[in-house]
């Protein structure tokens, strides 16, 4: 039915004509045609057949892991190996959620009736697209202004998202866990062709096949991170690894961490960093729970560069432990510290909670006047962070020509409750550590 | 609400801020519901739970926290053995793997495995471990060959050539107890792969991307140490003889400036000391004057003639009499005393009127009149001079000067220290034992109000 071809391509020409050859389109039309011999065939069928394969940028509803349909935007597509020329899978961004949930989906997860070619359609059939757009933009704005991404201007943010738009590794195996990854990580080009990586949980070498990992495990001589243990409490241990002395380990750790951190950069070498790796220990070895990295010498008084709790250990208070630990190190150094910006959404949340807990605990007990500087000296928290925390809780107010701190016990308790539990405590007397000194 | 229109002044982090323990202190003078906190408290009693939920700041974000997606690996317990025993002391790092030596850092990758499975169909004697070890050693040997040839590039720029030749590899790998043919096949395979990759296969030996490379897929650049030198400021501080000399010159200049300033400070200090001395001197003289008036008043009442020579002698002389003439010169009680000398050589008596001594005198008002010589005339503002002291200072009374030429004077002189520290020699009628008023001294007869003399 050659007659069908013309109207379809005319209707959607602006969407489909460019880019790839006409053959799939004709093919679809040809296949769809026999089913709809009657002139008034179902319009949705017509739509359905006409949109395939979906263009990058298309908005559509997609079935997520919660079995509900959510709006998505197609970021990328690729042919499925060993199937028909028209079979693609699509990399989609759930516009309601963080980029970490972007994933490759099969065609049957998409509701093709909801396809919108947003690129040139101003009239939204769903009416929700506008909302979706604003939500999407709002997320950007939130990231830009609230989460401290201000040093990423719009252009570099776009560039960043373009370069990292598609996750390369979908899952990793690390010790006992097989974990779904969140973000793109710039593994060496030799790893471009695989979706799953097998990490040795001790030296963090990564391999493409399980057999390679098993062979590696027979010879791997590590049972804990290759650094000094500086803290041990129960089964919890903290190791300090020098990026210069253990370059490959540091790089492996960065590759791994990037899979879960959006705005981490692997631009520079690991020489100038120390890695503090938190482990749970048992008779198989010390299993990495999370880590934070720290510049050996920070001109901006950063006491933490990157922080990550691996997904299987999340929501158990380890992140709060890592943050508290970074401030304990700053206290030992006699310096105030602050995390390097930008903070991720989860990072900001944890830090806000930590600052709130620490500061409000002091305010609750403190008698008499107190300056921000004194609070900073007591906690090693940078004065700016104290100010933003107290101001966002509206505890600093300007009355009768001067600033006062409001410390009504009831208000404080309420904020403290909202800030959540403190997580695992850092027992300072178990920290055996001297600040890093350059070896000459 | 006009209050809110004031722009608060910026907060000083060093300033102590009052802590207000009750929110009601705020609300009394505020419009209702002005802050979230006050709202918070008001709502609480009514609907405690709801209020709480509403004001959890993290609530919106919390909904976005993803449920971590992971599953357990069922082969884990087989893959990882239970051979770890935690020592009681904290674990210490050992050297890196590359330094330990024997560890085979290379893990076979997919194409190695594919090649191996094909190859081992013909040659059964090669194990994957041996294959791994051979590849690792070839990599290290090649790296060493490039090192010797001076071809190690700090950063990756152009393709890195293979330098290791089969013969060299053979020699080094003889100890491996592997058949020649196997080594040859592995070498050929490795060389082909290595040339295809255009970089070392072992990740540790791959050079980092150059600093100015902007490809985001390339990672772990060296930190821009070399880059920093390109800024103008760093260039100016080049480490050569010229800048060394420049810095030396700067140092010399600074040293000179420093010594100049130090001298200046010294001078100014001296100046201040001089002023202070003058002030002290004046004060003492004033005090002394009043003291004398006081004494005189007392004496006038009691009818005694004041001033035994012993009493008015200086404190130093008190000491001296105790110490049996150890030192005639005034002791350095204070800088003030010392500084007086250049101005007035006969002043050793003046510092006697220290406040301490003044106190002493006041405390013994009943004792001292008895020490006075009843024949001594009442001389205002005066102290008797000690002839031997005068002689030491080279001052002679007028009568002794003319002694040798002219016969004895019809009258004698009697010295005293007058106001302002002058030495005054009064002519002295030795017959009646009274001074002869010549009108050139400031001596005034003991009148009720001697203040007129000023």
From TrEMBL, chain A:
Enzyme superclass (EC): transferase
GO biological process, alphabetically ordered: DNA repair; regulation of transcription by RNA polymerase II; response to UV-B
EC annotation from Swiss-Prot or TrEMBL: 2.3.1.48
Stretches the record annotates as Disordered: 1-21
Localization per Swiss-Prot or TrEMBL: Nucleus
Key words of the record: Acetylation, Activator, Acyltransferase, Chromatin regulator, Metal-binding, Nucleus, Transcription, Transcription regulation, Transferase, Zinc, Zinc-finger
Matching InterPro entries: Acyl_CoA_acyltransferase, Chromo-like_dom_sf, Chromo/chromo_shadow_dom, HAT_MYST-type, MYST_HAT, Tudor-knot, WH-like_DNA-bd_sf, Zf-MYST
GO cellular component: chromatin; nucleus
GO molecular function, a single term: chromatin binding
Active site, per annotation: 340 (proton donor/acceptor)
Membership in a protein family: Belongs to the MYST (SAS/MOZ) family.
Protein name: Histone acetyltransferase
Gene name per UniProt: LOC101488527
UniProtKB/TrEMBL annotation, chain B:
Alphabetical keyword list: Coiled coil, Nucleus, Transcription, Transcription regulation
GO biological process: regulation of transcription by RNA polymerase II
Cellular component GO terms held in the UniProt record: NuA4 histone acetyltransferase complex; nucleus
Domain of life from the UniProt record: Eukaryota
Predominant localisation class: nucleus
Coiled-coil ranges (or none): 247-287
Alphabetized Pfam families for the sequence: EPL1 (PF10513)
InterPro entries: Enhancer_polycomb, Enhancer_polycomb-like_N
Domain Enhancer of polycomb-like N-terminal: 41-139
Compartment(s) where it occurs, according to its Swiss-Prot or TrEMBL record: Nucleus
Stated family: Belongs to the enhancer of polycomb family.
Name of the protein: Enhancer of polycomb-like protein
Organismal lineage: Eukaryota, Viridiplantae, Streptophyta, Embryophyta, Tracheophyta
């Amino acid at each position: 039915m050659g007659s069908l071809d013309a109207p379809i391509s005319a209707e959607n020409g602006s969407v489909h004509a460019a880019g790839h050859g006409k053959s799939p389109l004709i093919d679809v039309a040809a296949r769809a045609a026999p089913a709809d011999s009657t002139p008034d065939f179902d319009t949705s069928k017509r739509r359905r057949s006409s949109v395939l394969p979906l263009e990058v940028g298309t908005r559509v509803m997609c079935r997520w892991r919660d079995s509900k349909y959510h709006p998505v935007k197609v970021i990328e597509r690729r042919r499925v190996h060993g199937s028909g020329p028209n079979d693609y899978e699509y990399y989609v961004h759930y516009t309601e959620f963080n980029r970490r949930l972007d994933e490759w989906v099969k065609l049957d997860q998409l509701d093709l009736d909801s396809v919108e070619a947003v690129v040139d359609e101003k009239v939204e059939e769903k009416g929700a697209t506008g909302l979706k757009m604003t939500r999407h933009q709002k997320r950007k704005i939130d990231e830009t202004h609230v989460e401290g991404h201000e040093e990423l201007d719009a252009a570099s943010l776009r560039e960043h998202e373009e370069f990292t738009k598609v996750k390369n590794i979908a899952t990793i195996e690390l010790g006992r866990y097989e974990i779904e990854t969140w973000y793109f990580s710039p593994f060496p080009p030799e790893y471009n062709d695989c979706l799953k990586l097998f990490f040795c949980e001790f030296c963090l070498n990564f391999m493409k096949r399980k057999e390679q990992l098993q062979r590696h495990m027979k010879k791997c001589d590590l049972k804990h991170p290759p650094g000094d243990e500086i803290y041990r409490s129960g089964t919890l241990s903290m190791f300090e690894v020098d990026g210069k002395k253990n370059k490959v380990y540091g790089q492996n750790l960065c590759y791994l961490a990037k899979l879960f951190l959006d705005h981490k950069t692997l631009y520079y070498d690991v020489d100038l960093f120390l890695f503090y790796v938190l482990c749970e220990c048992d008779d198989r070895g010390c299993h990495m729970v999370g880590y934070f990295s720290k510049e050996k010498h920070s001109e901006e008084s950063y006491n933490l560069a990157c922080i990550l709790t691996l997904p299987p250990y999340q929501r158990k208070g380890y992140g709060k432990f890592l943050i508290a630990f970074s401030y304990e190190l700053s206290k030992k150094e006699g310096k105030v510290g602050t995390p390097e910006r930008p903070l991720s959404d989860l990072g900001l949340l944890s830090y806000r909670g930590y600052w709130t807990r620490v500061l409000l605990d002091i305010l609750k007990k403190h008698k008499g006047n107190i300056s921000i500087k004194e609070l900073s000296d007591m906690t090693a928290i940078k004065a700016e962070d104290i100010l933003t925390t107290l101001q966002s809780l509206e505890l600093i107010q300007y009355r009768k020509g001067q600033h006062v701190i409001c410390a009504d016990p009831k208000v404080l308790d309420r904020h403290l409750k909202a800030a959540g539990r403190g997580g695992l405590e850092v027992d300072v007397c178990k920290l055996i550590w001297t600040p890093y000194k350059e070896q000459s | 609400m006009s209050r809110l229109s004031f722009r608060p002044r910026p907060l000083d982090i060093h300033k102590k801020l009052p802590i207000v323990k009750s929110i009601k202190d705020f609300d009394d003078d505020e419009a209702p519901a002005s802050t979230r906190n006050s709202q918070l408290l008001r709502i609480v009693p009514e609907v405690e739970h709801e209020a709480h939920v509403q004001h959890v700041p993290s609530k919106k974000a919390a909904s976005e926290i993803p449920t971590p997606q992971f599953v357990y690996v069922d082969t884990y317990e087989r893959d990882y053995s239970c051979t770890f025993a935690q020592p009681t002391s904290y674990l210490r790092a050992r050297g890196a793997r590359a330094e330990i030596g024997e560890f085979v850092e290379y893990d076979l990758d997919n194409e190695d495995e594919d090649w191996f499975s094909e190859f081992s169909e013909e040659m059964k004697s090669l194990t994957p471990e041996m294959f791994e070890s051979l590849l690792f050693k070839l990599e290290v040997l090649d790296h060493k060959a490039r090192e010797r040839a001076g071809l190690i590039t700090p950063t990756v720029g152009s393709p890195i050539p293979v330098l290791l030749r089969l013969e060299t590899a053979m020699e080094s790998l003889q100890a491996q107890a592997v058949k020649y043919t196997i080594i040859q096949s592995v070498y050929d395979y490795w060389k082909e792969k290595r040339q295809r990759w255009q970089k070392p296969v072992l990740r540790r030996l791959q050079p980092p991307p150059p600093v100015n490379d902007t490809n985001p897929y390339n990672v772990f650049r060296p930190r821009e140490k070399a880059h920093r030198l390109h800024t103008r400021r760093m260039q100016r501080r080049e480490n050569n003889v010229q800048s060394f000399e420049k810095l030396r010159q700067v140092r010399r200049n600074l040293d000179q400036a420093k010594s100049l300033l130090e001298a200046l400070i010294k001078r100014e200090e001296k100046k201040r000391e001089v002023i202070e001395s003058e002030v002290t001197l004046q004060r003492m003289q004033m005090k002394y004057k009043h003291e004398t008036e006081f004494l005189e008043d007392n004496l006038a009442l009691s009818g005694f003639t004041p001033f035994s020579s012993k009493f008015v002698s200086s404190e130093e002389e008190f000491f001296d009499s105790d110490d049996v003439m150890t030192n005639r010169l005034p002791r350095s009680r204070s800088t003030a005393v010392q500084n007086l000398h250049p101005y007035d050589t006969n002043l050793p008596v003046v510092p006697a009127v220290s406040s301490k001594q003044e106190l002493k005198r006041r405390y013994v008002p009943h004792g001292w009149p008895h020490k006075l010589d009843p024949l001594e005339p009442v001389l205002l503002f005066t102290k008797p001079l000690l002839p031997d002291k005068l002689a030491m200072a080279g001052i002679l009374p007028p009568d002794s000067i003319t002694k040798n030429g002219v016969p004895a004077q019809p009258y004698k002189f009697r010295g005293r220290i007058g106001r302002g520290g002058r030495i005054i020699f009064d002519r002295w009628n030795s017959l009646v034992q009274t001074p002869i008023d010549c009108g050139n001294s400031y001596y005034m007869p003991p009148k009720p109000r001697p203040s007129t003399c000023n």
